[in-house]
């Protein structure tokens, strides 16, 4: 192939062996330019009376990634106390965070939560119990709250496991319980100045529009003091060729129109908030693996690579697809699924990792069977590069399964310099928290 660059970041195939030689494989690779451009697209989203963008840090919580994102002006949505503490350790003030969690902190964690809230963290109430436990503290300290509302309607996730709005999902204060919580808040003089609904990830943009209409309806009914309305995240990205990415400008224009209509009907100006994660980082990332073996059964040719489900669990969890590129040891690009090059002379291979698990594959069907990938045939020692892995890969990996060590990560900076941002785990870290108990 004469083409050297591939994927949304236009990754130069010649740097793959460079990275592998310097830091080994498997290794995560991120692109600063792509992340910053994604942030800017979101900040440019049309809006009526102001836009606040939070990055859902669960997508990728590496401190360098957090610093790139927050330096572009995005704040953070945290899913746990530990995420908030981790972001603070990276230099992000609590005043730039919102905590949206299933946790119900008590004991030392409750003390920690109160300190974070006093330092400016926005607490997003996600259950009646959370509200009951925070109410006295919020009243004593004159702190306004946010509420995540479960809309009680079909959500917007691309699969059942990514749908957070349906009756089979438990996230947020159910719409049926909102009047009860609001009545108690009003009685105590507490204000919910923000309302939040997140219906799922990677789904139909039309569901996102429907969520805007639904949410503005109950903001009008139940939340007269709200000044901010968050429509959540879940903005779809096109990891694979043929997939359609969410049209940020179109969704923003729709939200702008509906918020302007809301003002015309109520006289109230609402700031819009969104909290994407995948959109910011997914296509910024690749996983570089090396082919360590080739096998043949009566049914399928296999490539065994040195990193699989312990680096990327999305195919096993969601049936998600990620584009595959094949790069020779000399840096020649043999084939790239994302770019659909070449279109002929390809061969089917099941690409699997080294875990003792039949689902350890980069592509699976709905029944968990391995799906072969059409690629140019490589040799042992060549590289399989997995695209679209900047989000929910290293942050969601079942690290240390089979006692494999978490790999390092590298950032390609805006000046094209390659910088290591996380070292590979050393073997001693596998057991450093285990106690030498003699029974």
From TrEMBL:
Q: GO annotations under biological process?
A: lysine biosynthetic process via diaminopimelate
Lyase: present as a keyword of the record?
yes
PROSITE patterns, alphabetized? ODR_DC_2_1 (PS00878)
Q: Which residues form the active site?
A: 356 (proton donor)
Q: Which domain of life is it from?
A: Bacteria
The protein's required cofactors:
pyridoxal 5'-phosphate
Going by the UniProt record, its keywords in alphabetical order are: Decarboxylase, Lyase, Pyridoxal phosphate
Please report the name of this protein according to its UniProt entry: Diaminopimelate decarboxylase
- Which species does this protein come from? Trichlorobacter thiogenes
